[in-house]
Design goal:
Blueprint (H helix, E strand, L loop, with lengths): L10 H8 L7 E3 L12 E6 L4 E5 L5 E5 L1 E4 L2 E6 L2 H18 L8 E8 L2 E7 L3 E2 H4 L8 H20 L2 E2 L8 E4 L3 E4 L6 E2 L26 H18 L9 H9 L12 H8 L6 H35 L1
Antiparallel strand pairs: 1-6, 2-3, 3-4, 4-8, 5-6, 7-8, 9-11, 10-13, 11-12
Helix pairs in contact: 4-5, 4-8, 5-7
The structure holds adenosine-5'-triphosphate (ATP) and magnesium ion.
Adenosine-5'-triphosphate (ATP) binds next to strand 8 and strand 9.
Length: 315
């Protein structure tokens, strides 16, 4: 089944997509009239670093902020608001530095929703890939390889700009029509030498392998997370979905990883888990070779098939 076109989305679709996420700590607020009329927004869901709402004046975008406004009052505030504000500032700085890239969510800048309250205006996706996976049967190999290439290319671009995502996962990869994916949610990212506000989720975390936690390089950490995202796309499920985080951590410590035999790009995933890649662009190049090899095989099969048909007609 193909995903629905993003232009057909409505708040109901989004709300049902988003309710599967872990709600952040939020507190309902008493109705506080704003002195200036805020941009009207429709609340959707809380993430762990902010609140997402549909931006009513431009439904192709969502707003990400620490409060949700409806009409002239705000109805929900992220707690603690200061953490959310700090993450939003980082995310704004990242989007400004990144500019436009086909594999990164479009950024519409900051929008004033009330006096001195600014939220991030972000391209509206169908939702995050992980939440949407159960809705769709597994896409064809070529589509999954294309998704993997898009993510590897985005991560390579990020690194070329002095940024590490630091929380890359299919939770922060957003899905669009025709299996186009874009990376987003940069609130925990590392810019230059700044200390990041987030770290990878347990199933995406590079094992220590004798190193101290902070001695593991950010490149290696991100490449491990990239490979876990590619695994999740190829297997259409997280690594070891049946195990708890602690059990997965113990597995990784014993160098036990999910079986990749028979998966597209299985060898690439395995090499990256073993830290055999140095740069995201090398992963991207390997994936491009893989997709070329697969489509080459397809072409060969097609020509063999046509030759067989030709022989049959003219025998
Ligand atoms: N640009 C977007 N378009 C559509 N849905 C979005 C967009 N950005 C976020 N969402 C959705 O809003 C919800 C919250 O997203 P957000 O990334 O802020 O938090 P999260 O992923 O739950 O937490 P975390 O900060 O740990 O990643 C998620 O369900 C996500 O799918
Ligand atoms: Mg997220």
């Amino acid at each position: 089944m193909q995903p629905s076109n993003s232009t057909t989305l409505n708040s109901a679709t989004l709300s049902s997509t988003f309710t599967s996420t872990t709600p952040a700590s939020t507190a309902p607020l008493s109705t506080t009239p704003a002195s200036a009329a805020p941009a009207s927004t429709t609340p959707i869901v809380a993430g762990s670093s902010g609140l997402i709402s549909v931006y009513d004046p431009d439904p192709l975008f969502v707003l990400k902020g620490y409060k949700v406004w409806q009409g002239r009052r705000y109805v929900r505030c992220f707690q603690p608001a200061d953490n959310s504000k700090a993450a939003l500032n980082v995310e704004h700085a990242v989007y400004q530095r990144l500019g436009s890239h086909p594999g990164i969510l479009k950024y519409g800048g900051r929008v004033a929703v009330a006096d001195n309250v600014y939220f991030l205006k972000l391209e509206r996706a169908e939702g995050d890939l992980r939440s949407l996976m159960p809705r769709y049967s597994i896409p064809p190999d070529q589509a999954r390889l294309r998704m993997a290439i898009q993510i590897a290319s985005s991560i390579s671009y990020l690194h070329s700009k002095g940024i590490f995502h630091c929380d890359l996962s299919c939770r922060n990869v957003f899905l669009f029509h025709d299996w186009v994916v874009k990376v987003g949610d940069f609130g925990g990212s590392k810019i230059d030498s700044q200390y990041p506000l987030a770290a990878e989720e347990v199933r995406y975390e590079l094992p220590l392998r004798g190193r101290d936690w902070e001695k593991r390089s950010y490149v290696k950490r991100e490449l491990f997370a990239l490979e876990c995202a590619i695994y999740e796309i190829m297997a259409w499920e997280r690594p070891f979905p049946e195990l708890t985080d602690a059990e997965v951590e113990a597995n990784y410590k014993r160098e036990t990883f999910p079986i990749v035999d028979g998966l597209p790009a299985g060898d690439i995933i395995h090499s990256c888990w073993k830290e055999e890649f140095e740069r995201a662009e090398d992963v991207e190049a390997a994936l491009r070779r893989e997709i070329g090899r697969e489509s080459g095989l397809g072409a060969w099969n097609a020509s063999a098939h046509l030759k067989g048909l030709f022989d049959w007609i003219f025998r």
